[in-house]
Design goal:
Layout (H helix, E strand, L loop, with lengths): L4 H9 L4 H34 L2 H10 L5 H34 L7 H32 L4 H24 L6 E3 L4 H12 L8 E3 L10 E4 L6 E5 L7 H16 L2 H35 L10 H38 L2 H10 L10 H7 L5 H13 L9
């Protein structure tokens, strides 16, 4: 009998049904509402800090302790970010801890989660303060054209972060150890060599300390490139591991990191251009009430954050589409590299514990930053249909 792609796809879809399917759909669909709630909480938190005069007081404090514009902006940003974080903390605890436990997607105690959240907050606060120091200097020098320099500063920061993440940031949250010699390491390195990925080692990550989610990645840029897979993936069969790692190698071979950086230049420029238009309007309209006289005041960060919150929601579908397109490209590359369509389909179904398996077309286009489980299984079955007689397909 001829291989029926749609029938094979539906056979995989049928393996997720009943309460399990309802649970995964509910988790992902709840995320749609969290986008709106996150926007509202961000607006309320930043608006409160501005309206209550706290931003103006922090600005006066920073001006009294630093002479240069960069130093003032940096000193203002650190307590400002911490204050906004404290206001939004109840919402963050619900979304990132209680909700994850509600759906069985976290293995962490509250203390362990809080410890990692504290490390992330420290890193983000310093990074954001440094960026704001540079961006505010650009605003002071060119109140109308600062968005160009701001884009450059931000993209440079992103590039540095991507490059150092595997060696300086990721180890703060998990242990990375060389993968022991064996069939998995041999298979991954063989695929890497065959596809021109410069790697002589594979790292194992103890991600099970956080959750049971399956994951792997090729992180870094140039000399910092690192192939890693987590211990949850190691519990799967070899065909599934090869399918996942073929996908991750695809991101490297297809230069997705560099393409994403180029796209982020354009997206960041568009976002800053809109902020550059909205921020002066907000200061003119509400500045007297907030205690902010003009754009030279580092407290305009609050106004910038209000505009950014709206811009982020508007640009979210475009970002999702950009990422989803790259993920789909990596899926196809991985199928060709691993030649394990059923292994890939099985992994796609296992990932459905936190992704809606069969969304509508518009739903997938707007809310999904990865192809849905149905799309991925269908892609695998179409690939399989074209390679039925190949002896090395698993």
């Amino acid at each position: 009998m001829a291989f029926d792609v749609e029938m094979a796809t539906q056979a995989y879809m049928a393996t997720l049904s009943g309460a399990a399917r309802a649970k995964s759909d509910a988790y992902f669909e709840g995320g749609y509402w969290l986008i709106a709630w996150d926007f509202l909480v961000t607006i309320l938190a930043n608006g409160a800090v501005l309206h209550l005069g706290w931003a103006a007081r922090l600005s006066a404090w920073a001006k009294g302790r630093a002479k240069g514009g960069f130093g003032r902006a940096f000193l203002f940003a650190v307590p400002y970010v911490l204050l906004v974080t404290a206001i939004t903390l109840p919402f963050t605890i619900y979304t990132d801890f209680f909700r994850e436990h509600q759906y069985g997607l976290s293995n962490q105690s509250f203390g362990a989660w809080a410890g990692e959240a504290g490390i992330g907050l420290a890193i983000n606060t310093i990074v954001l303060a440094l960026l704001w120091g540079g961006i505010h200097c650009a605003i002071r020098r060119s109140p109308k054209g600062w968005w160009l320099a701001g884009t450059g500063i931000t993209v440079i920061g992103m590039t540095i972060a991507i490059a150092i993440a595997p060696v300086a940031i990721a180890p703060l949250f998990n242990d990375y150890v060389p993968l022991p010699d064996g069939p998995v390491k041999q298979a991954v390195l063989a695929m890497a060599r065959a596809n021109g990925v410069p790697a002589d080692n594979v790292y194992l990550v103890d991600a099970s300390r956080q959750s049971d989610r399956i994951s792997a990645n090729v992180q870094g840029l140039g000399a910092t490139t690192r192939i890693s897979l987590n211990d949850n993936l190691m519990k799967q069969d070899l065909a599934e591991i090869r399918a996942v790692m073929g996908h991750e190698l695809g991101h490297y071979v297809l230069n997705h990191a560099w393409k994403m950086l180029l796209a982020l230049v354009l997206i960041t420029a568009a976002a800053f251009l809109i902020i550059g238009l909205g921020m002066p309007w907000l200061v003119a309209r509400f500045g007297a009430r907030w205690g902010i006289a003009d754009l030279n005041d580092p407290a305009v960060l609050g106004a910038a954050m209000l505009v950014l919150a709206g811009v982020s929601v508007v640009l979210s579908p475009a970002m999702n589409t950009l990422i989803r397109t790259q993920e789909q490209e990596a899926d196809v590359f991985g199928l060709n590299a691993a030649r394990a369509p059923d292994g890939f389909a099985r992994i796609a179904m296992k990932l459905s514990q936190y992704r809606k398996i069969e969304p509508g077309a518009a739903e997938e286009a707007i809310f999904f930053d990865h192809p849905s489980g149905h799309t991925r299984v269908l892609t695998a079955m179409r690939w399989k249909a074209e390679h039925l007689d190949a002896p090395d397909v698993k």
